[in-house]
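User: Predict the structure for this protein chain, please.
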Amino acid sequence: MFGTLVRLADGRETPIENLKPGDLVASIRVPGLAVDVPYRAQYDWLSHHGLHGAELTEARVASITLGEHTGFVVINRRIKATPEHPIMIRRGDEWGFASAEFVQPGDFLIDEQMHEEEVVSVVRIDAPARTAAIHIPGTNTLLAEGVWVHNDLPATASSSGSGSASGSGSGSPSSSSGSSSASSSKSSGSSSFSASSSSSGSSGASSSGPASTASGTHTSLTQISQSGSTVEG
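Assistant: Here is the predicted structure, written as structure tokens:
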């Protein structure tokens, strides 16, 4: 979303909408994470051994797409993302990526130094937002608002500076449709960071706990990665 601060390779931060193709950003190389493939491989990656072997690196932005989306999620009153955007978390003894809408209080975000930040609040906002989706080939990861996230663009996206992150956002390795224009993604499920035209305290806000089971317990990341029919993100 507009206004989201992304860490550059030189340590500075810049609003995501100011990035341009060729910029170097801080990134992380995750062992076992398939990158630049034409499906959402981030939901296949799961670790029970933490981030052992993960390598801090830098990567180059290949494309950026500006658009719009209705509805977004605010995590810890700071991290704003479209519901479908994958964020690296630890839940219990599992490390993996979960769509923003399925992040819950009690999960842990992962920062640049692999330290953890507990999720204490997740709020849904039903308001229009301006979005910026970027593609980072080679690693597919970036540091946004101080935590690791996935760029969520399929390999079929254009690298000319106009790749789109449109898609169903399923938590399984299904294909994602992607246009190469900066058109509105209001109803397409575009996955990106965005900035709302309203504050997080608007009347459209609601507490979010969509990954809870009927009994109120957390759904494991394993369950999320295996249930594309019930978990979309």
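The chain is about 5% helix and 35% strand.
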